[in-house]
Design a protein that fits this description.
This protein is mainly β and 458 residues long. The protein has 2 domains: 13-282, Tachylectin-2, Chain A; 319-445, Sandwich (Jelly Rolls), CATH 2.60.120.560. It is built from 2 helices and 33 strands. The strands form 7 sheets. Strands 25, 26, 27, 28, 29, 30, 31, 32 and 33 form a 9-stranded antiparallel β-sheet that branches. Strands 15, 16, 17, 18 and 19 form a 5-stranded antiparallel β-sheet that branches. Strands 20, 21, 22, 23 and 24 form a 5-stranded antiparallel β-sheet that branches. A hairpin with a 2-residue loop joins strand 27 (356-361) and strand 28 (364-368). The two termini are 14 Å apart. Residues 453-458 have low confidence and may be disordered.
């Protein structure tokens, strides 16, 4: 039976993480959830909690369509603590028309407004508390009436700010709002940059590290190569003036993960006040038990000389302390248990992990999952979806070290700790490990034989 450390839905479909927050001694993650089938449909918010970012307890469904203004879905959003309460912000959806063959999808577009709910304790979410805070835009207003979504709220200088993803025509942009109390919101400004050629800028998230502001977001159609999903997640430097309530993008967007399966990252602060992020990993077909979609390991975000870095959170890294021999590592792979492989690369290096191939030449890391990607459900992401097989990092600058984390159906590669990350969904990994032109290769298993999460259990 597969054992995984990664966050999985309770059943069926999941996508974006929502409402990621450390609140009253626990981490809360909500997630976009369709409880009826292994495909996208009318969105609910699933809910899980953890004390350590590793062991997650299912808390059921937090938000579900219950009001006229969200009758077709509770789309993505965020959470913040105000006066001891947990405030949830989300995009409420009504379909412009219903697909007569499937009531869970729209026949002709969306009607979106922004809504919120106050929870007294982060565990109870009274549907009667839902209310609209930003009504649907008309066509001549600043935001798009159907494609304005994903409110991310944060506090800065005794004010609350909200950023929304939107578009004007076919060009994506962001909308900034401000509030004194988290309840009543005023439009502040538009953030746009025509250098970023893409449709709606989904799942925006603005935060500061070491006094500098950054933006992470997921623009629709930003990836133009046709060799991977066209919708990708990126980060940029940002100038943000809380007094003037304005922001400006300062740098060209760069990918958060070079495996190109990652999407919709959301950040929060951990219990030590460090910026961390988790993101959705898109899967082209369900697991044997019908679940589809998972979240990445939590990643620690830092800046180095103005560049954002995404490294594995110590809560996960510290679990892999049991030193293994190669034969033991192959046994772990065969049993589909979590495994860590650390090594240094030489030019021309070649590593094969159960059919997943990693190569190194011309100072770049290349991966090939052609042998461990069986695509049966490419239609899940639309006709234009591309499920890529081969990927590479930019040229390495900080060294040639890899920490490779192999879990059931996912591999995460951390290059030089956090210079780059490359994560891929995989299926049916074999158990043989082959490596050539590498140095200092070492294998590590979990520090306990007890499973962290049984893949077939809820």
């Amino acid at each position: 039976m597969a054992v995984t450390l990664h966050f999985l839905p309770r059943d069926h479909w999941m996508n974006d993480p929502n409402g990621f927050i450390y609140y009253r001694g626990k981490y809360h993650i909500f997630y976009q959830y369709f409880p009826y089938e292994s495909r996208w449909g009318t969105m609910h918010w699933g809910h899980k909690t953890s004390t350590d970012l590793v062991h997650w307890k299912d808390e059921g469904i937090a938000l579900y369509p219950s009001r006229d203004f969200d009758r077709n879905g509770c789309f993505s959003g965020s959470a913040i603590e105000i006066d001891g309460k947990m405030y949830l912000y989300y995009t409420a959806i009504v379909y412009a028309s219903m697909d007569p063959a499937n009531i869970h999808v729209s026949g002709s577009g969306l009607i979106a407004c922004q809504a919120m709910l106050e929870s007294p304790d982060g565990m109870h979410f009274p549907a009667e508390e839902k209310r609209i805070i930003i009504p649907t835009f008309s066509e001549n207003e600043v935001g798009h009436p159907g494609d304005t979504r994903d409110p991310k709220v944060w506090q800065e200088r005794e004010q609350y700010f909200m950023v929304l993803g939107s578009r004007k025509g076919e060009q994506g942009n962001l909308l900034l709002y401000s509030s004194r109390d988290g309840l009543h919101w005023q439009f502040a400004s538009v953030v746009s940059d025509e250098r970023i050629k893409s449709h709606t800028w989904e799942c925006p998230d603005i935060f500061s590290i070491d006094g500098e502001h950054y933006l992470i977001m997921s623009p629709i159609g930003i990836e133009k190569t046709g060799t991977s999903y066209p919708n990708q997640s990126v980060w940029t430097k940002l100038s943000f003036n809380p007094g003037k309530k304005q922001a400006k993008i300062l740098s060209h967007p760069r990918f958060i993960d070079y495996g190109m399966d990652l999407y919709a990252p959301q950040s929060t602060l951990d219990e030590k006040g460090r910026r961390i992020v988790m993101a959705w990993m898109r899967m082209p077909r369900p697991l044997a038990d019908g679940r589809i979609g998972m979240l990445t390991f939590p990643r620690l975000v830092r800046q180095k000389e103005g560049d954002l870095r995404f490294g594995l959170h110590p809560a996960v890294e510290s679990l892999f302390t049991r030193v293994l021999q190669k034969k033991q590592a192959e046994d772990v792979l065969r049993d589909q248990r979590p495994l860590k492989i650390s090594l240094d690369l030489l030019e021309g290096a070649h590593i094969d992990i159960g059919g997943y191939v990693i190569r190194f030449y011309q100072e770049k890391v290349y991966t090939d999952r052609s042998k461990v990607l069986a695509i049966e459900r490419a239609d899940l992401f639309g006709e234009e979806a591309q499920v890529g097989k081969e990927f590479c990092t930019p040229i390495l600058q900080d060294g040639r070290h890899l920490d490779i984390y192999v879990d059931a159906n996912i591999i995460e590669i951390y290059v030089n700790q956090d210079e780059y990350v490359l994560s891929n969904i995989v299926y049916d990994l074999g158990s043989q490990i082959l490596a050539q032109d590498v140095e200092k290769i070492a294998y590590f298993g979990l520090d306990t034989e007890e499973p962290v999460y049984e893949g077939e259990k809820k």
